[in-house]
């Protein structure tokens, strides 16, 4: 096939387009068919990957068939395969199969969902998604909100609204430029509060120190009494608390803060209550999990991240804000917020009045199609499956002499440690050898186990820090993961742990 020339400029004839499209669908279908057998992490020298893409922009256009060849030859093989059932890194949705088709259609119609007129159906699809998400997690069906690029921008949107409301919108024009402004502070659990909150404080020019880390209990949930003490102390110090953030499914251990108690404190003190449910809010869709989320329905705003535990491919975050007017007053660029907030006809509703982006893509289509495809019951089954896998992993960990549990299996993110049985005894009853050496050894051992399993291609997982000690961390955020996958990976971790421990022990000068 010829590259574009002056006569064809940049369009294909329809038959050519169809051929390219069918080939693209074949590439996608082949990918899904092979995903179970692929090495999850790329088995190539990083230099080869750099070299593969190291070329100048072509002077003359290239044949699209050859470009698709390059996609098959370099882009796909040199990807990390998040859609694999054994991808357990970070918190990455596995990618639902309708979504690539939706994305192709969204790019085709290329609506700009910043406004109703440029995107009538796009706006209505997104509005429906927001309402469905809110209802599915037991939040107000009257809610405002919008899709965002991800959890960070969802948290940003919510916290800017919180700050504006707290300052009675005086900061809209003046920002924080007045010298007599107090220090505005916000509160999140110390161990599990997500780093995106710190980034948002920075983006809002509050300064990273504005994020106060509230002590947690042993189960990693926020200590409410400690929060109240901090609020008192900060207020006595002249600071002005404006927002409390509860975690609904935290980043390392899936902890859910005592949301009802946090809602009470916010109500008593007139503070904004934000729930960062990027990882776990959607668990409230499952009737038997729902009681754990009591109080989330009272939040002023909730971050929900469909590109995590709803398995939607990137990018797709969402923020729900109870009072749409506050969002409109926060983001409208002129007095038209009134139009946004009290839109009497559908075509008065413009998303650019409700969030940071002006131009916006049609990311709602993949979410809408997938929500319709799975329905509530389908999603409930998939969410239960993730939690079952995490519970099974916990059972394996507790039954094995060389592993140690560090948490209860809350939702789908589960952290644990490889600790050889003899060293478990040492930790309980520390001997003369400094404990620090044992802990350092275990930290390195756990890191090495994670590195080896990733390098082997069998699975992708990461380590994290739990109470300052390195732990293995598996985020079971794939609708494709089965109990068999969990067992296979656990066997591999066991084998690597035993082998490396044996190799290293001789030179480790440990007490055993
Ligand atoms: C609890 C929590 N909040 C916010 C974020 C940020 O989300 P994103 O990476 O989509 O910006 C994450 C990401 O892992 C998260 O776990």
From TrEMBL:
The entry's family comment says: Belongs to the group II decarboxylase family.
Q: Name one GO molecular function term.
A: carboxy-lyase activity
SUPFAM superfamilies in the record:
PLP-dependent transferases
What is the protein's name according to its record?
A: Pyridoxal phosphate-dependent decarboxylase family protein
UniProt cross-references to PROSITE patterns, sorted A to Z: DDC_GAD_HDC_YDC (PS00392)
Q: What cofactors does the UniProt entry give for this protein?
A: pyridoxal 5'-phosphate
Is Lyase among the key words of this record? yes
The signal sequence is none
Could you tell me the keywords of this UniProt record?
Answer: Decarboxylase, Lyase, Pyridoxal phosphate
């Amino acid at each position: 096939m010829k590259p574009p020339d002056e006569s064809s400029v940049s369009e294909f004839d329809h038959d050519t387009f169809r051929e390219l499209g069918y080939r693209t669908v074949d590439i996608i279908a082949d990918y899904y068919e092979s995903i179970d057998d692929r090495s999850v992490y790329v088995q190539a020298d990083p230099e080869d990957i750099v070299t593969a893409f190291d070329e100048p922009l072509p002077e003359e256009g290239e044949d699209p068939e050859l470009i698709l060849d390059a996609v098959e030859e370099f882009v796909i093989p040199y990807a990390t395969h998040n859609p694999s059932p054994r991808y357990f890194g970070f918190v990455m949705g596995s990618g639902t199969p309708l979504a690539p088709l939706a994305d192709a259609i969204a790019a085709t119609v290329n609506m700009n969902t910043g406004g109703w007129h440029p995107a009538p159906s796009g706006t209505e699809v997104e509005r429906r998604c927001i309402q469905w998400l809110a209802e599915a997690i037991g939040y107000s069906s009257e809610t405002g909100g919008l899709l965002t690029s991800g959890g960070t921008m969802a948290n940003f949107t919510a916290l800017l609204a919180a700050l504006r409301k707290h300052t009675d919108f005086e900061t809209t024009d003046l920002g924080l430029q007045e010298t007599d402004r107090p220090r505005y502070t916000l509160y999140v659990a110390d161990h599990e509060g997500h780093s995106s909150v710190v980034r948002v404080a920075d983006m809002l020019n509050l300064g990273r120190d504005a994020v106060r880390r509230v002590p947690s209990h042993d189960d990693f949930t926020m200590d409410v009494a400690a929060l109240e003490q901090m609020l008192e102390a900060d207020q006595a110090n002249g600071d002005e608390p404006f927002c409390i953030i509860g975690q609904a499914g935290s980043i390392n251990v899936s902890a859910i803060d005592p949301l009802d108690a946090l809602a009470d404190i916010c109500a008593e003190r007139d503070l904004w209550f934000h729930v960062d449910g990027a990882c776990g809010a959607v668990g409230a869709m499952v009737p038997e999990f729902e009681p754990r989320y009591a109080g989330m329905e009272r939040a002023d705003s909730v971050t929900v991240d469909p590109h995590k535990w709803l398995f939607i491919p990137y990018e797709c975050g969402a923020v729900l804000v109870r009072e749409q007017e506050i969002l409109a007053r926060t983001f409208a660029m002129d007095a038209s917020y009134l139009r946004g907030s009290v839109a009497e006809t559908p075509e008065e509703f413009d998303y650019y009045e409700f969030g940071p982006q002006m131009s916006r893509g049609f990311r709602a289509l993949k979410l809408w199609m997938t929500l319709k495809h799975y329905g509530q019951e389908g999603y409930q089954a998939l969410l239960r499956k993730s939690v079952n896998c995490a519970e099974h992993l916990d059972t394996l960990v507790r039954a094995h002499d060389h592993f140690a549990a560090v948490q209860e299996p809350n939702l789908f993110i589960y952290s644990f440690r490889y600790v050889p049985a003899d060293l478990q005894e040492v930790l309980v009853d520390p001997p003369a050898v400094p404990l620090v050496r044992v802990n350092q050894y275990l930290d390195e051992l756990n890191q090495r186990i994670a590195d080896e399993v990733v390098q082997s291609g069998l699975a992708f997982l990461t380590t994290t820090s739990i109470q300052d000690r390195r732990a293995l961390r598996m985020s079971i955020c794939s609708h494709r993961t089965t109990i068999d996958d969990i067992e296979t990976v656990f066997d591999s971790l066991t084998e690597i742990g035993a082998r490396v421990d044996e190799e290293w022990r001789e030179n480790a000068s440990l007490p055993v």
